[in-house]
Design a protein that fits this description.
The chain has 458 residues and is an alpha/beta fold. It contains 14 helices and 18 strands. The chain has two domains: 252 residues, Aldehyde Dehydrogenase, Chain A, domain 1 (3-Layer(aba) Sandwich); 183 residues, Aldehyde Dehydrogenase, Chain A, domain 2, CATH 3.40.309.10. The protein is globular and about 75 Å long. The structure holds NADP nicotinamide-adenine-dinucleotide phosphate (NAP) and magnesium ion.
Length: 458
């Protein structure tokens, strides 16, 4: 470290466009060294008593809980997300480690009635797992992978996004400070095309868990198939927020903006297609306009801020390109001037589901309002996408709410709510939104192999 020839990574603060940190940029050598450390640590980590593994997760949760404010500040500055949101997210990370601390002692198998003996199944850890995470929710998404992977007895190499490596490095530090054995959790900050691909292709990495774009997810899937490597993918989305005329329109309209513009729209669960029953469109748009213009866009470190800047100039110009289509701008919120990758939240209406802005994931503060006339049409439009991550249904009719929820091809739906993530419930996508589930008890299935053992008794 520290030689002038070593490549370095400059981390930018998107609200100010200034350098927040500069750190060594890892390459293949560092990735290989991290895999080797994780491989050496695996035997001891898988062998410790389940109760001791649980204790390690609880201690890590407690160490993170002591550092909520500093981690939230770092995440808010690095991502440009509102400090209140960042604090909530670090709280979720603490909850995630505490939740999976309950797992090591509950990784149950079955005994299965068969002839001639006793048959048993076991959940075995995979070994070294490679975790690759994006820049929009750096610490929460890392924790959704790290916590179940550790609980199941795996060791880890975690690669954060180049834009946002700082809280992942703090997680590694917190793990060591909390007494997690060395080599169990290794963080390598380096480019996706180098360090990420090396993890995918490394013969000693048993599994890759990835969150990011569908394009990179496809590439990882293709590379991993060479070694039949286990892969779970959490990818993009183009989720529908379906609002029926009988819904509490005031509640739906006040929740809709942050369901798209939260995290400046850089959220795979963003309900970026707002489907509104035609008979309620005018009333809904009036209410939505009020809610969007009241959004507080600005300094991420100010307590009252609800939306900050985008992550980068590149992301902002990509998002702006979606505003040049055929759909008219119906509502435009505010954004600060001056340094920072700001972009005003914008609602387009009416939008056809065939427009580019309705087909592609924008990953920025742009919402498309698409009118519909019948329940069948709403379902057809909601499903007319390659994605299937999330979505909402707003209606006072409970039977219809469940009927539509069952008909929508998506993994994580909410009724009369725009929330997607709860530590205890499964999260993940249908179709090209991904493979596998995170959070909840099911996540453990993706960090274990099912083994069956037969013991002859006669
Ligand atoms: P991305 O370009 O796919 O990057 C995600 C991660 O993969 C980063 O750590 C990146 O490293 C790494 N990576 C890039 N190329 C790679 C390769 N060839 N092999 C292995 N790893 C590689 O996505 P992003 O730009 O960070 O995030 C935006 C996208 O992620 C959006 O499409 C969004 O929907 C999706 N996303 C999905 C979810 C979900 O839960 N479904 C959550 C968040 C985001 P570098 O940064 O170093 O290049
Ligand atoms: Mg990228």
């Amino acid at each position: 470290m520290g030689t002038s020839t070593e490549p370095s990574l400059k981390v930018i603060e998107p609200a100010t466009e200034t350098v927040l940190a500069e750190l060594p940029h890892a390459g293949v050598e560092e990735a290989d060294a991290a895999v080797a450390r994780a491989k050496r640590a695996f035997g001891a980590w898988r062998a410790i008593a389940p109760g001791d593994r649980a204790m390690h997760l609880r201690r890590l949760a407690a160490t993170l809980a002591e550092r909520v404010d500093e981690l939230a500040l770092l995440e808010a500055r690095n991502v440009g997300k509102p400090i209140g949101d960042a604090r909530g997210e670090v709280g979720l990370v603490v909850d995630t480690f505490n939740y999976y601390a309950g797992a090591p002692e509950r990784l149950l198998g079955d005994t299965i009635p068969v002839a001639g003996g006793v048959d048993m199944s076991f959940r075995e850890p995979l070994g070294v797992v490679g975790l690759i995470v994006p820049w929009n929710f750096p610490l929460p998404i890392a924790s959704w992978k790290v916590a179940p992977a550790l609980a199941a007895g795996n060791t880890i190499v975690l690669k954060p996004a180049d834009l946002t490596p700082l809280t992942a490095l703090e997680l590694e530090r917190a793990a060591l400070d909390s007494g997690l054995p060395e080599g169990v959790l290794n963080v390598v900050a380096g480019p996706g095309s180098v360090v990420g691909e090396r993890l995918v292709q490394h013969p000693d990495v048993a599994k890759i868990a990835f969150t990011g774009s569908t394009a990179v997810g496809r590439r990882i899937g293709a590379l991993a198939s060479e070694q039949i490597k286990r892969v779970t993918l959490e990818l993009g989305g183009k989720s529908a927020n379906v609002i029926f005329a009988d819904a509490d329109l005031a509640a739906a309209a006040s929740a809709a903006p942050l369901a798209v513009f939260g995290n400046a729209g850089q959220d795979c669960c963003a309900r970026s297609r707002i489907l509104v029953e035609s008979s309620a469109l005018d009333r809904f748009m009036e209410l939505l306009e009020r809610a969007v213009t009241e959004l507080r866009v600005g300094d991420p470190l100010a307590e009252r801020t609800q939306m900050g800047p985008l992550i980068s100039a590149e992301q902002r110009s990509k998002v702006r390109s979606y505003l040049d289509g055929d759909a008219p701008v119906a509502i435009r919120g505010s954004a600060p001037e001056g340094p920072g990758y700001w972009l005003a939240p914008t609602v387009l209406c009416p939008v056809s589901n065939q427009d580019r802005v309705a087909r592609e994931e924008v990953f920025g503060p742009v919402a498309a309002v698409i009118p519909f006339d019948t329940e069948e049409e709403a379902i057809r439009i909601a499903n007319d996408t390659i994605y299937g991550l999330s979505g909402s249904i707003w209606t006072a009719n409970g039977a219809r709410a469940l009927r539509v929820a069952r008909a929508i091809e998506a993994g994580t739906l909410s009724i009369n709510s725009n929330t997607s993530v709860r530590v205890a419930t499964p999260f993940g996508g249908f179709k090209q939104s991904g493979v596998g589930r995170e959070l909840g008890p099911h996540a453990l299935d993706y960090y274990t192999e099912l083994k069956n053992v037969f013991l002859a008794t006669n």
